[in-house]
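Hi F.,

I've been meaning to write this up properly since the lab meeting, where we talked about keeping a consistent format for the predictions we share between groups. The idea is simple: the sequence comes first, exactly as it goes in, then the structure tokens exactly as they come out, then a line or two of notes. No screenshots and no reformatting. I'm using this chain as the first example so we have something concrete to point to.
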Amino acid sequence: MTFLWDVCDTCTRRRPTRTCWLYPERSVCPYCCAACPERGQCPRPVWLTELVAPRPAAPARQERRRAEAAKALEELLKRLEGG
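Output, unedited:
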């Protein structure tokens, strides 16, 4: 079984490609999309979801902050009682 990918119009390598949002006549691979000089001006980069690492969930971050705050409060209370 042979699997052939499309050719990237920018680097001419055979990789998975998608149509560029700024230039619909071009098919770009994820590497060329990430290296594009106009990426900062692009409203919807085609490879954005695959290139951006997922962020940690907000509730986990809040739990960590609450635990740190509780620990700091306990330390302060121990200092007040002991000192």
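Notes:
Residues 1-52 form one domain.
The CA atoms of residues 9 and 27 lie 6 Å apart.

If this format works for you, I'll send the rest the same way.

G.
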